[in-house]
Amino acid sequence: MSYLIVTIIPIMVLGIYSYTQSRQLLNDQAKQSIERNISTAESSIAYKMELYNNLIQLIVANRLIQDMVSVPNGGEVELSTLANQLREYLDPYFNMMLTSYHGIDKLTIYTESPLPEYGDYLRSATGVSDQSWYREALRKFGIRWYFDESQQAAYAVSKFPETFLSGHHVLYVHVDVKSIFMDAMKLLSDYGLVITDSHGTAAVTNARAAGWFSDAPAGVQEEGISTINGIEFMVINKKIPNTGWTIHCYVPIDQVSGNAAPILYATFIVIGICIAILLIIISLFANGMLRRIYRLNHWMKRVENGGLELKIHNSSKDEIGELTDRFGNMLFRIRELIQEVRQKELHRLQAQMNPHFLYNTLSSINWKALQTKSYEISRIVTSLSKYYRTALNKGDHFISVKNELENVKSYLDIMLITDNYGFDVMYDIDNDVNRFDTINMILQPLVENAIKHGVNRKTEGKGIITISATLVDGNVQFAIMDNGPGMEEELIQNVMKLRSAGYGLRNVQDRIELFFGHGYGITVRGHGEGEEGTTMLITVPQIVKDANLSDLTKKR
Asked: What kind of membrane protein is this, topologically (predicted)?
């Protein structure tokens, strides 16, 4: 499943990316096709409106017409001459224009000159002077197109040039909308089409746009993707040159990207085929790998049930083969350790018989000494028996502080007798230390060192060894002090480094650090200047064997 998931993700990402890119490509192609159609429609509209613009320019630039409508300041109109000009030139000229240019409904010159009106061709500007299009035409020379909502028609206006004319004259051309936009509406019939004039008024709206935008304004959307009445559209806007009018084309996104469905299906089919092939490959690979894992697990279960004599065989060099080899090596090492434990247990059982023989022998010597009234020998034997009993401690490394102190007392009793009581021993024991445990045989080497390098080297006065045990800062601290000549720093370092065949100070230090960790152990220091003697301190934690040993092991 892990391999499958890890592999499916890039395949899915690649498939989605391919589909997205393909859909984007289709959208771009569709947009380009729509833009080409819009450009064609815009060219058609621009061509027709340019024809009408040419017509307007021909009329406003016609010198005869300019002379007809122009009356010099203070001059009088020759009505008979004007009537002839209108009848013989303007009337046939405008009729020809209306006949030649399809779609023109009306041609009118609005003039401010005191001329008589002549049908629709020549009219006084008084009636239209309040119209916005008329005022705009007077402000600047040029052709302007507008849409008449009441008549659903387009019209263009242009002011006559004022260079040689007196007064203001404006040409008004009324054009049927269908004649201008019919070809564009047919070309863009598959889309929503809205054409607005320079004021944003919708001049043309085809049936599709009318159905989509019946409850919403159209023709004012920015180009891009827009949502109108819950439908997502691609909006394309294009200005018609020299008119100020704009074509707005609305294409539903579904219509643009509808052809992407086969690509989506093909993408999923390819992904499905890849996954199927992948499943087959993963199945073969996983089965080959899992078979060896199951076999290794079977061997482990056999070992768990006691089959330690199992022989592990492996020829593979990959990770599972390496794991199998390590399991075989571990099993071999376990068998070796079990054999070592059995040998040590045999030695321990044999060693248990030696103390019994020793104690029985010492007991017999003690009785013989008592019978012969050799009381010092009896005392030495008794102390020796107690010393070995506490030292051996039934093979246990941990001993109560009380028994450890008893052990060193027995040792000192023997040393006092053999030394003919050549030194004194003082004890300062805090009873609170007796409730704690420590490791055995840590005080005797220090006492032995105090005798050997301390009181035995004293030349004047009697030697004194003081043994104390107190609780200090949450620890148990033993102190062995002597009043000998003291130990030089070099000798202290040598004593701490020496590993004797018995229990040297270094041996004691190593065992304390092994059981309790760094921060515990022996500290040797001399007394102040002018004073004699050496003090050796042993610091161990306050522990009770059964309650604290497991916690201590975890901390270490």
From this structure: Multi-pass membrane protein
Between residues 25 and 438, which one has the greater pLDDT? 438
Q: How far apart are CA 209 and CA 276, in angstroms?
A: 48
- Residue 442 CA to its chain's centroid (Å): 57
Retrieve residue 320's tokens.
């599972």
* pLDDT value for 502: 42
**Where do we find the tokens 């002597």?**
482
Q: Report the C-alpha gap between 191 and 235 in whole angstroms.
A: 10
Determine the Cα–Cα distance for residues 334 and 123; give it in Å rounded to an integer: 123
Residue 504: how many other CB atoms lie within 10 Å: 18
Q: Is 376 helix (H, G, I), strand (E, B) or coil?
A: helix
Average pLDDT on 356-376 reads 71
C-alpha dihedral, 384 to 388 to 390 to 396, nearest 10°: 180
Tokens 């613009």, located at residue: 53
**Residue 48: exposure state from Cβ atoms within 10 A (0-12, 13-18, ≥19):** buried
* Measured CA distances, 556 to 149, 341, 514, 518 (Å): 97, 24, 9, 9
Report the alpha-carbon distance of residue 442 to residue 35 in Å, rounded. Answer: 100
Q: What is the DSSP letter of 87?
A: I
Using DSSP, state whether 458 is helix, strand or coil.
coil
d(CA 418, CA 385): 16
pLDDT category at 347 given cuts 50, 70, 90 is low
**What are the start-end ranges of the E strands in 52-142?**
104-111, 122-124
**Beta bridge partner(s), residue 122:** 109, 118
CA–CA distance, 194 with 210 (Å, rounded to integer):
9
Distance of alpha carbon 181 from its chain centroid, rounded?
A: 58
Using a cut of 0.70, tell me whether the model's pTM lies above it.
no
With beta carbons less than 8 A apart as the criterion, state whether 180 and 243 touch.
Answer: no
Q: In what order do the strands lie in the sheet with 202-205?
A: 202-205, 192-196, 246-252, 231-239, 224-228
CA–CA separation, 81 and 89 (whole Å): 12
Taking residue 555's Cβ as centre, other Cβ atoms within 10 Å add up to 10
Alpha-helical (H) ranges within 429-522 are 444-453, 489-497, 505-516
Lookup: tokens for 237: 């806007």
Confirm if 110 and 170 have CB atoms less than 8 A apart. Answer: yes
- Strand partners for 477: 470, 539
Euclidean distance between CA atoms 378 and 363, whole angstroms:
9
Q: CA-CA distance, 334 to 240, in Å (whole number)?
A: 94
Beta strands 423-429 and 104-111: pairing type?
unpaired
Where do runs of H (alpha helix) occur along 305-421?
319-371, 375-392, 401-418
Answer for the pair 86, 120: CB distance below 8 angstroms, yes or no: no
Extract the tokens encoding 283.
Answer: 């199945």
Encode 126-163 in three state secondary structure: HHHCCCHHHHHHHHCCCEEEEEECCCCEEEEEEECCCC
